[in-house]
Amino acid sequence: MLHVRRALAELDAVKRSGIENSSGDVGEIQLGVRLPPIGEPIVSLLGEWREKHPNVMLVVSEMNDRDLAAALEGRRLDVALTFRHTVLRHTESVPLYWDRLLAAVPAGHTLAEQPIVNWDALRSEIILVQGWEESQAARELYASFLGGGAMFRSHAASKQSVLALVCAGFGITFTTASQSKTAFPGVVFKPIDDPNASIQIVLTWLPQLEDATVGRLVAFLRDEARSRRLISPS
User: Rg (Cα) of the chain, in Å, rounded?
Assistant: First the structure.
């Protein structure tokens, strides 16, 4: 059965032989995203894809971890841009880049006055996270950095709603550097004094997927990430 893994192998063979194959140059891709595709490098990656494949339409749906998984399994999505730690075991994926973690604190908080913050200082705060009964991936990820003793409060809400609670003084949270490019009134984003405070962003899909157009997208983003050396933490 043809699927994306085979499409990747075929595209690699095409590249090596120098033969141009028009298959997959026209179509529509349903792309799920865990976070808005803003900031670098994702904006320029998608921009390069659009320039080289102007006849392929990307239809983007932003969802939480639970809904992304259900949409992939139900084949309502072709491929998803998400975090490495949330990838389902039975899906295929390729790493694209690392996104730095930042602490999001209220503008009037003492941490907002510091140029950089550390895990010890953050551990004593109430940590607001997105979470659902079926998925507490964010809390588990942050706990791996903070260690024991952290006080978490889960909310089945959007990131914007969690940031609104931060602004109101209910606690702090964490965001990626790309998310911080969208200013949020009353919230200050602070770098964390830890070179490993990063999240790997991956592209994931079902291994049985048969679609040459999706295969081209996966191959393009994979190769661009490698050529730009995006998949090593910076």
Answer: 19
- With a CB cutoff of 8 Å and minimum separation 6, the contacts of 221 are 45, 49, 94, 96, 203
Give the helix ranges, DSSP H, for 114-211: 119-123, 137-146, 159-167
Which letter does DSSP use for residue 116 in this model? Answer: S
Closest CA to 96 of 53, 63, 141, 48: 48
Is this model's pTM higher than 0.70 or not? yes
The number of domains in the chain is 2
Residue 82 near residue 68 (C-beta atoms within 8 A): yes
pLDDT tens for 72-110 read 999 999 999 999 988 777 889 999 999 999 999 999 999
For residue 113, the enclosing domain spans 100-191
Residue 47 carries which side chain, given as an amino acid letter? G
Residue 137 sits in the same domain as residue 160 = yes
| Statement to judge: residues 104 and 175 lie in one domain | yes
Q: Which amino acid is at 170?
A: F
